[in-house]
Amino acid sequence: MTFVPPTAEQLGLYLALPEIDGDRADLLLEQAVFLCETVVKPLPDRATAVVLSVAGRAYVNPQQVSYETIGPMSVQRPSGSGGLYLTKADKTALKSLAGRGGAFTVDPTPVTADPSPTYPVDDNYGPGLEYEPGWGWV
Question: Which residues lie closer than 8 Å to 96 by C-beta, 6 or more apart?
Answer without folding.
Answer: 102
